[in-house]
Design brief:
22% strand, alpha/beta, binds adenosine-5'-diphosphate, 275 residues, four-stranded antiparallel sheet, Rossmann fold, disordered C terminus
Length: 275
């Protein structure tokens, strides 16, 4: 028997602006296998962030369901909801906006430990913070500094550490490197790839950069105007796209050699970035 998918999105619809409003998601189905890496691509405004926000309960869908571990996320209550909030962590797009400038790194990374009562004492929490910072490639000696003293790439590592201390099973990442300098994008993508390997954490990754999806994601779904028009193994979708829209995306940014997907650590950005 195969493992059931960690995330299964069924017939999800989300409209903004009431009746006659704008349909951001239209009957979306998407399966994220346990332990996989899935990319979600599509031009700006296609509904990618709305889908992620529906997954983590920042938006409520009009209809359809987000099933996590076989249970409807929008019906969770009590202890089940608290467990969900620990097990699913969002890596936001902009590490400049997502870290409270008044808090130290130690406070930022340990906040979830306090909320979820995972480390009772301050020394225990500082230990866990130090471990997480080390895991994301930051010096734990810096934990008493504030975000302003860190670069964009380092801030995104802090955001990843904040997620990791909770030992999540699913990371949902909303264009987590698009606000970073091209020169550090690859480092952060490599970190996520390493965490996937070492922890087996499942990753759902929104990207506007197809080279990053080719590098990181075993599967890819293509969203166009709120509709998933194509979905499958990344190597297959990129080599033989079935939908015209996918071909257009690929033609705008030719991916060098689709058959080398995931074995080749391409440098994201540059000429391969979608306009
Ligand atoms: N809170 C909101 N209120 C009204 N419209 C929204 C809201 N959030 C998103 N939208 C609209 O939904 C569509 C999809 O947006 P979004 O999910 O942010 O796309 P993407 O992340 O792919 O760029 C866009 O037309 C956007 O303007
Ligand atoms: Mg978005």
């Amino acid at each position: 028997m195969s493992t059931p998918p960690i995330l299964d999105i069924k017939a999800l619809t989300k409209t903004f602006g009431g009746a006659g409003g704008h349909t951001a998601l239209d009957d979306v189905y998407l399966t994220v296998p346990t332990g996989s890496t899935v990319g979600l691509v599509g031009e700006s405004g296609s509904g990618k962030s709305t889908l992620l926000r529906c997954i983590v309960r920042l938006e409520r869908p009009d209809s359809g369901a987000v099933m996590f571990d076989g249970r409807d996320v929008h019906r969770l209550r009590g202890a089940d909801l608290r467990a969900f909030r620990r097990e699913v962590q969002l890596i936001p797009q902009d590490p400049y906006a997502s870290l409270n400038p008044r808090m130290t790194v130690a406070d930022i990374v340990s906040e979830g430990l306090v909320v979820h009562r995972l480390a009772r004492s301050r020394p225990q929490r500082r230990d866990r913070v130090a471990q997480a910072l080390t895991e994301v490639g930051l010096d734990p000696g810096a934990m008493d500094r504030r975000p302003a003293t860190f670069s964009g790439g380092q801030r995104q590592r802090i955001a990843i550490a904040r997620a990791l201390v909770l030992e999540p099973r699913l990371l949902v990442c909303d264009e987590p490197v698009s606000a970073l300098d091209v020169s550090v994008q690859a480092q952060v993508v490599n970190l996520l790839a390493d965490l996937h390997e070492s922890r087996g954490v499942t990753i759902l990754f929104i990207a506007h950069d197809l080279a990053i999806v080719q590098q990181l994601c075993a599967r890819v779904a293509v969203l166009r105007a709120g509709v998933v028009v194509e979905e499958g193994a990344t190597s297959q979708v990129f080599a033989t796209p079935r939908h015209r829209y996918t071909r257009e995306l690929l033609e705008a940014v030719p991916v060098p050699d689709p058959l080398r997907a995931r074995t080749d650590r391409a440098v994201p950005g540059g000429a391969l970035t979608l306009p």
